[in-house]
Write a structure and sequence with these properties.
The structure holds two protein chains of two kinds.
Chain A (H helix, E strand, L loop, with lengths): L1 H21 L5 H19 L10 H11 L6 H5 L5 H6 L1 H30 L6
Helix pairs in contact in A: 1-2, 1-3
Chain B lengths: L3 H10 L2 H20 L8 H16 L3 H13 L1 H7 L1 H6 L1 H6 L1 H25 L5 H6 L6 H10 L4 H25 L5 H23 L1 H29 L2
Helix pairs in contact in B: 2-3, 2-4, 8-12, 8-13, 10-11, 10-13, 11-12, 12-13
Classes of the chains: A mainly alpha, B mainly alpha.
């Protein structure tokens, strides 16, 4: 369990350090995600008799974090109070822009995905 | 017994109170969300934020004081983002087969999110820093704030718009997908991550692990693409 937590933090630390060192516009944790993914692929190659990942503590820790992803947005969400004045000034316009644009973005993404998937990669093989 | 005001002096100075409050508010919000069968409007982020806001108002607590406790929860966003590697790994074969839809939907979705937000707000009379703050609203806060800062927008306003977009997207996701008749879990997850970043991804994980995996991919990719495209958009519009 501790190894799994240490591994997650190490990947994040490596990501944060590299993006800062080279001034990349990628957030450190996203780079850390790529590192962990590559490590898992390497593990497959090197250790052919490795335990399936679903039975490891790493899977347990990751599943726990992702199942409670909503929790982690609460502090930032509460931060909205700080911006109350700006939101009230342009309030209605900003909110309309947010709602309409988010609905459009959701629809366009899903529809384009579905059209391309039907043509190039159907849900089930064969 | 000591006066209650003395207890408050201790509680107000320590992170314990607001850390506990954040956790309990989330547990209550999650129960409510489960009670309503994860109905779109019973969004756990929305409910938990509302509970905390009321408590801060009642106790007259300022946000920086609240954040000294809440920062420990906020910190977990980093490791949780790294943890997205796991569903990506588990579903890697399905992901590899969907590279063309991923690339196409990413491009279309990221551009739509950016252009439509700025366009609609401009039509409604929004200008200047608020307009710049709006462009990166669909991507994860860390990237969005960096983009806004670079273009002379207001990073903290951007953060607020990002959170609001996340909640809006999470609430709209399932009703909208039913309306436009999209059933493919890959498409639904990918749309959630592209249009409403981490909060959309959290919603996608409520629907299923495959939805979550595709939301996670979209979250990372759309962040990168938007970081490249927003400066271009503002150069084209020559603000």
């Amino acid at each position: 369990m501790m190894f799994a937590i240490g591994l997650l933090l190490t990947c994040q630390l490596a990501g944060e350090s590299l993006t800062r060192l080279f001034g990349w516009p990628v957030p450190g944790p996203v780079l850390g995600l790529i590192f962990l993914f590559v490590l898992l692929l390497v593990r497959d190659r090197v250790q052919s008799d490795a335990k399936p990942i679903a039975t490891t503590p790493l899977n347990e820790v990751c599943a726990f974090l992702l199942a409670n992803l909503s929790l982690m947005f609460v502090p930032a969400g509460v931060g909205i109070v700080q911006e109350w004045s700006t939101l009230q000034r342009d309030g209605a316009a900003l909110i309309i822009a947010l709602v309409v644009s988010t609905a459009l973005a959701l629809s366009v993404t899903a529809i384009v995905f579905q059209i391309l998937a039907a043509r190039f990669s159907p849900e089930r093989e064969g | 017994m000591k006066p209650i005001s003395e207890l408050w002096v201790y509680l107000a100075a320590e992170p314990l109170l607001w850390l506990t409050t954040t956790l309990i508010a989330y547990v209550i919000a999650d129960r409510i969300s489960a009670f309503f069968n994860r109905a779109p409007l019973a969004n756990p982020v929305l409910i938990a934020v509302a509970i905390v806001l009321v408590l801060l108002k009642l106790t007259g607590t300022a946000y920086p004081v609240y954040f000294t406790g809440a920062q420990f929860v906020h910190f977990l966003l980093g490791p949780a983002t790294v943890a997205l590697a796991l569903p990506l790994y588990t579903h890697r074969k399905i992901v590899m087969r969907a590279l063309i839809p991923i690339a196409g939907a990413l491009l279309a979705g990221a551009i739509t999110a950016m252009v439509s937000a700025v366009g609609i707000a401009k039509l409604l009379g929004v200008s200047g820093a608020s307009l710049i703050a709006l462009a990166p609203k669909s991507v994860t806060a860390a990237i969005a704030m960096g983009i806004a800062r670079e273009l002379g927008g207001d990073p903290s306003l951007t953060a607020t718009l990002v959170i609001a977009t996340g909640i809006i997207g999470a609430v709209l996701l399932t009703p909208l997908m039913r309306l436009i008749r999209v059933k493919d879990p890959r498409a639904i997850g990918f749309a959630a991550g592209t249009a409403s970043h981490g909060i959309g991804t959290a919603r996608a994980f409520q629907l299923g692990s495959l939805e979550g995996a595709f939301a996670g991919i979209a979250l990372g990719l759309s962040g990168l693409l938007t970081a490249l495209l927003v400066p271009l958009l503002f150069r084209v519009l020559s603000f």
